[in-house]
Structure formats: structure tokens, C-alpha cells
UniProtKB/TrEMBL annotation:
UniProt xrefs under NCBIfam families: ogt
Organism: Lysinibacillus sphaericus
Protein name per Swiss-Prot or TrEMBL: methylated-DNA--[protein]-cysteine S-methyltransferase
Protein encoded by which gene: adaB_2
Reaction catalyzed: a 4-O-methyl-thymidine in DNA + L-cysteinyl-[protein] = a thymidine in DNA + S-methyl-L-cysteinyl-[protein]; a 6-O-methyl-2'-deoxyguanosine in DNA + L-cysteinyl-[protein] = S-methyl-L-cysteinyl-[protein] + a 2'-deoxyguanosine in DNA
Keywords: DNA damage, DNA repair, Methyltransferase, Transferase
Amino acid sequence: MTILYVDTLTFAQGEMYMIAANEGLVYLGTPNTAFDEVEKWAQKHFKGYSFEENSEKLKPYVKQFTAYFNRELTEFNLPMHVKGTVFQLAVWDALKELPYGTTTTYAAIAERIGNPKAVRAVGSAIGANPILAIIPCHRVIGKNGKLTGFRSGLTMKQFLLDLERE
């Protein structure tokens, strides 16, 4: 059975649930949503698990996210333990290479992973990203320069982009 350690992260836009396993961070929830979202995600990704509130275990993660939200950190170095398909993992790895404060397009990510025709699939993989900000899907915008879908909503996406630009 996998123990999933839970804590909340408080920042300017509210609170988010953070979930980690012994191997690293596995999930960062949508701001200001019920714990039900976390439970549904865990049911989909772990066969046997239990939740344990543990702010001590998540302290390094909270510290880095707080520094990020205070504009004191531009690159995370936290252990992560993400689960996804080979394609999703390739997309998420490409996202992690995007420099702080920059943006790119879905087509550019598809090119970067060597699959230029997979623009829609890239969008789906980005939508399945379990760890917002560390896997910076907010840095991906439409080819016309407009904001496009984001699990936490376009207001949060704009907040993160503005945070990194100021």
C-alpha cells in the first residue's frame, strides 16, 4: 500500500492540496477545490493507497513553492514521482525544459518531442499534468498568443505568467 502524504499550500490565490509519496511529489491540486478532486485523482493513479496528513514530510515542497510565489525561486529541484504514459512523460519532460518567464506553443512542444503532428495529443498530455508550476504547463499558449485551457483555470494561468514576468 502506498502512503500519500497530504498538506495544503497557502498562497495569494488561496490554498492547494499537495500530495507526495516516499519517492517525491505526485500531485498539486487545483486552488480552492475540495479534497474530492485529490481523492478522484488518487483512485485513478494508485491501486492501494492511504492518505496521511504530514506537514513535516511536505515541508521542503511548501518551502520551494512559497519561494516561487514570492519570486525568490525560478527553478524547482524537488523530487517528483509522476505517473503517465510514455507520451505524457515526454511532453512533461519537454515542459520542464521551458525557461522561467517564457512561453511556447503546443506545436512547438510537439516539434520538441519529435512528433510535430501530435499537437492535439500534446494538449491532452498537458491537461493531464499532475504537478502544476513544477511541470510548467502554464507556459504553453495558443499559436495566436492567447491563453488556452488550464486545469486550474485561465485566471490562475495568467497569475502564474504574470508572476514570472514581473
